[in-house]
Design goal:
Radius of gyration: 25 Å
Distance between the termini: 54 Å
Order of helices and strands: HHHHHHEEHE
Number of strands: 3
Helix content: 40-55%
Largest sheet: 3 strands, mixed
Number of helices: 7
Oligomer: single chain
Shape: globular
Strand order of the largest sheet: 1-2-3
């Protein structure tokens, strides 16, 4: 997988350029456009469509409101701030904020770095990137063992679900996840006293 410069200074500069581009549309202009669209739908006589549009607007406002509140809380708490550290670290590591940044192409990290962040957020599953298919958007992961430790499908299923949820926030370019579990080692042999003898029970001290 390719790597790019993701130093704090580079991340901040990339985000600043993207934000400046996004600021070309003011809040007043955006609000006026939304009102015009809602008015046109209402004038069209399709009440169901107008109500659906209003519900969509409310849902989007809730989504962005939650994201802005999270940003303010993270910055106010000073999370991730330390001398020489990346001032964006706390924001880039938050699923909600990261999903907003990715949605608007404001996230300063490349796809590979964001995939790594997603997997780090579910590190309990010990997943590693094996390959990524650009054409299909399929991410192949490998893990040393299933969650349950028995090699059953349930463990791989829970790991896949956790990975898909995290990747949906950090790297929506990933459209499918394939997990390959390393084969289990050979079973341990139990040594008895001789042919046909029963295994000796361990003594409790």
């Amino acid at each position: 997988m390719t790597s790019t410069d993701t130093t704090p200074a580079t991340n901040t500069a990339k985000t600043a350029r993207a934000v400046n581009a996004a600021n070309r549309v003011s809040a007043e202009q955006a609000g006026r456009r939304v009102e015009e669209v809602l008015d046109r739908l209402a004038a069209g006589g399709d009440r169901a469509a107008a109500e659906a549009a209003e519900e969509l607007v409310r849902s989007l406002m809730d989504f962005y409101g939650s994201g802005l509140a999270r940003i303010v809380r993270l910055l106010s708490a000073g999370a991730g701030r330390r001398p020489g550290g990346d001032p964006l670290a706390a924001l880039l590591g938050d699923e909600l904020v990261a999903s907003l940044l990715v949605l608007h192409d404001l996230h300063p990290e490349d796809r590979d770095a964001r995939i790594a962040r997603a997997l780090d957020s579910v590190r309990e599953h010990a997943l590693e990137v094996a390959d990524f298919d650009e054409a299909t958007g399929t991410l192949e992961l490998r893990t040393g063992a299933a969650d349950s430790g028995c090699g059953c499908a349930a463990g791989a299923g829970s790991a896949r679900q956790a990975a898909e949820d995290a990747l949906a926030c950090f790297a929506p370019e990933v459209r499918a996840v394939d997990i390959r579990t390393a084969p289990a080692g050979p079973p341990l042999l139990q040594i008895g006293k001789g042919p046909g003898s029963a295994p000796t029970a361990a003594r409790t001290p």
